[in-house]
Amino acid sequence: MRFVIVTGMSGAGKDTALRFLEDMDYFCVGNLPIPLIKPFAEISVDGKSSEMNKIAITVDVRSGSMLEGVEQALCDIENAGIKYEILYLDASDETLIKRYKESRRPHPMAEPGGRVEDGIANERRRTAFLKNRADFIIDTSQLLTRELKAEMNRIFMQGKSYKNLYVSVVSFGFKYGIPTDADLVFDVRFLPNPYYDVNLRPFTGLDENIREFVMASPESTIFLDKLEDMLRFLIPNYVKEGKNQLVVAVGCTGGRHRSVTLAQGIYERLKKDPDYGIRIDHRDMAKDLVKKQTDYEVN
Prior knowledge:
elongated; 2 domains
């Protein structure tokens, strides 16, 4: 039997994760009262039905003061010889605040009429012990719904090893600002710029002619080799220190040609590693094009 406890920050995607597990044929129970965790686990283990061999429950701050009893409940099921796994969904404070403002729902840990920020801080304190015990931590700050689904499928369906780290490779334009959540920033404006070739200017770093132009410079390959080597050194050490989200930002002037080519290149090299999740985001790739089209329409 596989017994999964889904927990984490409100707004980080616990309900979505539970729906994904249900799609994976897990028997799911949302917000199970804390005193029922041990009896429910024992009934599940003793059950003869094959439909109950994969079980998932959610536990969160909606349990109120009973949340303090989770640690004892976990010890009780451990002593009963029942194995369990904890999936902790997290997200940055900025992301959680944005999600709550968009949904216009009150945070469960905020005082009536109080600030969402205070509720988030309170919840982090109260759920810290669950995060420390978690087998899997997924930071959903940068994840699309389909990316969260793919990551959970990798863990709970394919049974692949998981190192609690999700790497986001982001291309950007310096004229639009450095990504605020970037952990590592690399400037590739030292490379030849396709922008100055009017025949290449309309294309992006995802087009073959731009990739050929950028990669024709020997420095591009050297840069990719050195960046890959450094990231393969850093990532296991970040994992060891408990980091669960790494944002690698690669920038050029407008974020359309060179940064897209190099970011895509490092993504292609790293995505072959099964030990962590990875995504690519070309933040500013279409901005110049949109601006030019708008100017044309106005004129």
